[in-house]
Please model this.
Amino acid sequence: KQEVTQIPAALSVPEGENLVLNCSFTDSAIYNLQWFRQDPGKGLTSLLLIQSSQREQTSGRLNASLDKSSGRSTLYIAASQPGDSATYLCAVNPPGNFNKFYFGSGTKLNVKP
Amino acid sequence: EPEVTQTPSHQVTQMGQEVILRCVPISNHLYFYWYRQILGQKVEFLVSFYNNEISEKSEIFDDQFSVERPDGSNFTLKIRSTKLEDSAMYFCASSPGTGVETQYFGPGTRLLVL
Model:
């Protein structure tokens, strides 16, 4: 079964800093990888989806990269803002199957003003 | 922007009671999902649904659970006889069915079983 790990579990940075969140997965033959944001007590907001044939995706200040061979993805947040404070979740589809995601435990980010 | 909606936002029930959680997926989406998140734990896949039938389910989705699309807009999760360990946040999601299957999640229903 696919295991997804996110490091660090929590991160606190001052406003304006660039930061990287890490995600690793045990089975490199994934279908897609999706990054989500979760605010306390709320649902999941989709940030970026990287298909297995892609290396990276960008949206505004966010850039997600995928290295399937090493079983890793990173989410880069540029010029962090207090509004970026949330838990960031990484999720992967198993090979050839977009019907379900396996989720990591998340990185809880706090951006201090 | 279209979004997935869920009702109720909170539900408290007694152990052994039946609950129905409701979702309205994004209107032109073809795939529907339920996930759950027990407090402090990972989000877990329960079931996916396409063309009026279950396409995949996890080992969590046992005979106590069922899903239905009773009309053209609603998607429901029924738990027949709730247990204490069913207490969790339940998320509904949908995806377009175009092949690039970004899943869009609803805000969740927090279920508390007493």
Notes: The interface with chain A takes residues 4, 31, 33, 35, 41-45, 48, 55-56, 58, 91, 93, 95, 100-108, 110 of chain B (CB under 8 Å).
